[in-house]
C-alpha cells in the first residue's frame, strides 16, 4: 500500500542567491519526493529518490512557515518551507520511514521495472565477467590459478566463490592461512602486471597478536613472492596508520612480523579509518553549505575538514603500489583491518594507474565489480541502504570515485568516460535501483536473489555512453601507466560533486556539452557517409556480429538521466497531481 | 654608462644548466648587454637537438650564488617565476657571472632597456602603436549620444601628468572647468569617461580621490562635472576602493572622499581592495608556498589561505561585478576611485568592461582595453613591475595589480570558456611582458614619460608582434563564439581557483594538459590533429625567451 500524498504551497529556498523562493507542490510517491515549481515560467521539477535521503530535519518556525531541511547522499540539499505544521510533520514522518527501509525487500531494485525481457535482464548480469578479466591478465598460467575452493563459502563468506591464488598454495595452505586472517580473508590476487609478473594481492590483517605465527600463512606469502621470480622480495603494505595497527595487536590481530616471513618488506601507509573519513566528509559538507563564506572561511574549513589530506593519502598509496609493481618489479600484498575498505580503494586505484583497460567504460565496470563488489566492500552498510548502525556508514567508495576524478584533472585525455559517468555510478551506489550494490558480499546477494529479481546497472550506463564519454579521450594506447603528481596543489576541491546541485557555482558554459555535441554531429556525418558506402558495397558481416553481441536496451529504458521515467509522472499515475489524497 | 663595464666575465665553458622538469644541459654560457645565452653546441650554430637558452637579463628577479670548492652554483629566479640553475666551474667565474647579472638586471634607466635595442626584421618600428586611437573609441560613443566630447586639455600633460593628452569628458563641461576640477583631485586625475554602456546610456567614470582634506574643502567645478552626468532625480554610485575608515583617514593627508552634502545625487559604496605592499607580499607568499614542494596538504591549504591571494581575486571580481551591476541592472552611472586612481581603480574599471562589453572580449578588443584602461590611463608599470615575487631587494612601489587583473580575467575565462576570443596563453604572455619584455608597450609609468623617452619612435609594440598572422593563432581560443550578453561570474569561493597555469607553470609538467588543449583545438576546428611538436622544440621554447627566439630565428 503505497502512501502517496501531495502538499501545496510549499516554498523551496535557494541556498545561495537571494532570489525569491520558488512556490510549488510537493508530492510523495512510493519511490520519490517530487517538487513541482509552479512559480517558474517553465515547468521545473525536482526529483529526489527516497533512498538518496540521508537526513530530514525540522527547523524552527519562520515567518514563511515550517522549514524542512533534506540532505541527500548525493549531496543535494533541499530546503522546503511548508505552510501548515501538520503537513510538515506528516511529510517529515513519511520521509523518515521511506528513506530508511528496514528490510532488503523494500529496496527500490526489487520493485524497479523497466519492462525488460527476462532474457535481456539475464544478459545484462552477464555483461561483466571477471573470468574474462583474469584471462586478459593471462590467468590461469604457470603461477596462478582460479580456484573454486570457496564455492560453498567455507574459506571466507565475504569472498566470491572463485578466487585467484598461487598454484603453489595447495588447499591446506589456503585453509590454514584463512584461519590466520581476520574473517578468513586470505591473500588473493587483485591484479597481475603481465609485463613483469609482479602482482597486487589483497587480504585482511593477520591474527598475529603479539607473537602468534601460522606456517600456512607464511607459505602463502612465500608462494605469492615466488610467483614473481623476477623479484627477490615482496612488499607487504598495511594501509593503516601504525598506531591503529599496533592497537589491533592487543585484540589478537595486527600485522606481519618481518622476521617470520621470508623476504618481505613491510610498510605502513597511514590511511585513516572509516570513522575519521565519515567525520571528515561531514565537516567538508558543512563548509560547502556555508552561506556566503569568505575565501578564508572556505579554505580554512577545507583544511580543517582534512578531506583533501585523506584523498591524497589514498592516492599516495595507489601510486606507491603502482610504482612498486612497475618500477621495482615487486609483488605487493595489501591489507588494512578487514581488507574491504582501504584495501579496495588502494588496489583499484593501483590497477587504474597501471592498466589503460580500466580507464575504459567496460574496464571501469570490471574494476568496480572485481575490487569492490566481488571482494565484499560492504556497500549496504557503508551507504546506509537500510536502517542500521550509523557508525558503519562511511564515504569510502566516494573517496575512490574522487581519486579517479582527481586523475581525470591531471590526465584529461586518458579516460574513455567523463565526470558524469562517475556521478552516475555514485548516484546509483546509493539509489538501490539496481542490484549491483545491494547487500555486503556475494553470498548475501545470492541470498537476496538479486540476480533473479533485479537489474544490473552496467547495461543501462552503456546505453547512455554517448553522453558519458570523454570527447578528449585519446584511445586505449595513448597512455600506459599514469604517474600522477601528488604534491598537495594537484588536489582540487571537487565542486562538481560536493556542490553539484548548486548550479550557480559551476562554469556558466559547459565545454563538455559543447564538445560532445560537436562530436555527435561529426559522427552523424560520418554515419551518413558510411551508409552511402554500404549501399555501394555488400554489408560487412563483421558489423552484424558486433551488433548482435550486445543486446539492444534501447527500447526498454528511458532516455533521460532521471532515476525513474518522467512519463510516469506526466501520466498522472498513482494518483499524484490530484491534490490532497 | 657602457654595458661592457658591467660585464666582468663574458663567456664560460662547460656550464651546466638545469631547470625543474627538464633534463640538464651543458654548454657555453655567454653574457651580452641584455641576454644570458647558453649554447650546448660549441660552434654556436644551432643544430636540431641543441638546446639554447636565451634569457632576457631584465627577466632576472633574484640571483643567488653558492660556492662549493672550486666551482659554484648560481640560481636565477626570474620575474616570470621560472627558476634556473647554473653550475659554473671556477669560483671566480661564478662570482663574476653573478655580479654581472645582478648589475645588468638592475639597470633602471628606461632608455637603456632592451626594447630600445631590439630590431626584429619582420616588424616595422611604428607598427602597432596606433592600433587603438581614443578617437576611434570615442566615435562609437558619439554615434549613440552627444553627451560626451573629446578634450585635449591635457595635450602638454600640464593638467594631469599621468593622463594621456586626450580624454573623454562630459560635453557640457569646458576645458577651463576641467582644469579647475583637476586641481581638486589627487595628481590632477579629474573624472573622465572610462566606459559608456550603450545598452542604457549609463557611464562609468574614473578619477582619483578628491582633495577635501581635514577642512572639508569643496570644488564647484568638480561638483558640476559630476553633476552634469546625472539628470535631475537620477542617482549615481561612487565606488570607493578603500574602506570607509581609510577614506576618512585620507582626509588628514589632504585627500578624502565625496561628502553626501556636496554630491547629493551620488551614493558612495566602499569596497576595500588591497594594493601596494600588502598585495606584493601576498604575491610573494603565494609563490613561496607554490615552490615549497615539501609541504603537506594541511600546510599547503593554510598557506594558500594565509597569503590571501585568492581573497584578493574574489574581492576584485566582486567589486567589478558591483560596478557592472550598477550600470546594467540599476541603470545608474558609476564613478570609481581609490586614492591615486592608478591601481585598484583601473583594476575595477577594466574588469567591469570585460564583464559587460563583448567587444572587450575579442583579441583586438582586449588589447584596446589594456591600451586604454591600463597603459594610457597611467598605471605605473615601471614602478609596479620593477620586481616580481622572488626579489630580495627592499620593496619600493612594486605591486602586482596587473597580474591580479589577468588572474581575474582567467577566472572569467574558466567560468565562460566560450566567451573570450583569446586563450590563457595570451594572459601568460602579457604577464611575462609586463615584467620583462623586448617590446616597449609596458615601459614607463604614463604617457608623459613615454613621450619623453620616445618609446613609440624607438621601440616595437608588443601588439605588432602578437598580431602577426602566424603568432596570433597561438593566442586564440578555439571554443570562442561571440556572446552578446553580460558575463556575470560566480564569486563563491568554490568557483574561484588558483591559476595553476601561471603559478605552477615551471613547477609541474603540463604535457597532459597541453595534449588535452590540442585535442580541444582539433575537435573545435574539426580538422586534423596539429602537427606534433618535437620534444626538443618544446624544451627550447619553454626555456627561452619568446622574443629572443624570434631574434634567434633571423
TrEMBL record, chain A:
Keyword Transcription: no
CDD domains listed in its UniProt record: PTP-MTMR8 (cd14584)
Positions annotated to bind substrate: 273-274, 336-342
Keywords for the protein's UniProt record, in alphabetical order: Hydrolase, Lipid metabolism
GO cellular component: cytoplasm; nuclear envelope
Matching Pfam families: Myotub-related, PH-GRAM_MTMR6-like
Residues annotated as domain Myotubularin phosphatase: 124-498
A GO BP entry: phosphatidylinositol dephosphorylation
Molecular function terms from GO: phosphatidylinositol-3,5-bisphosphate phosphatase activity; phosphatidylinositol-3-phosphate phosphatase activity
Active site: 336
InterPro entries according to UniProt: MTMR8_PTP, Myotubularin, Myotubularin-like_Pase_dom, PH-GRAM_MTMR6-9, PH-like_dom_sf, Prot-tyrosine_phosphatase-like, Tyr_Pase_AS, Tyr_Pase_cat
Keyword tRNA processing carried by entry: no
Family recorded in the similarity comment: Belongs to the protein-tyrosine phosphatase family. Non-receptor class myotubularin subfamily.
Protein's name according to its UniProt entry: Myotubularin related protein 8
Organism: Falco tinnunculus
Lineage: Eukaryota, Metazoa, Chordata, Craniata, Vertebrata
TrEMBL record, chain B:
Pfam families in the cross-refs: Myotub-related, PH-GRAM_MTMR6-like
GO cellular component: cytoplasm
Family annotation (Gene3D superfamilies): Pleckstrin-homology domain (PH domain)/Phosphotyrosine-binding domain (PTB) (2.30.29.30)
Biased composition (Basic and acidic residues): 530-539
GO BP term, example: phosphatidylinositol dephosphorylation
Domain of life: Eukaryota
InterPro entries linked to this entry: Myotubularin, Myotubularin-like_Pase_dom, PH-GRAM_MTMR6-9, PH-like_dom_sf, Prot-tyrosine_phosphatase-like
Region ranges (Disordered): 527-554
Domain Myotubularin phosphatase: 128-503
Database matches in PANTHER family: MYOTUBULARIN PHOSPHATASE DOMAIN-CONTAINING PROTEIN, MYOTUBULARIN-RELATED
Family named by the database record: Belongs to the protein-tyrosine phosphatase family. Non-receptor class myotubularin subfamily.
Protein name as it appears in the record: Myotubularin phosphatase domain-containing protein
Organism: Falco tinnunculus (Common kestrel)
Phylogenetic lineage: Eukaryota, Metazoa, Chordata, Craniata, Vertebrata
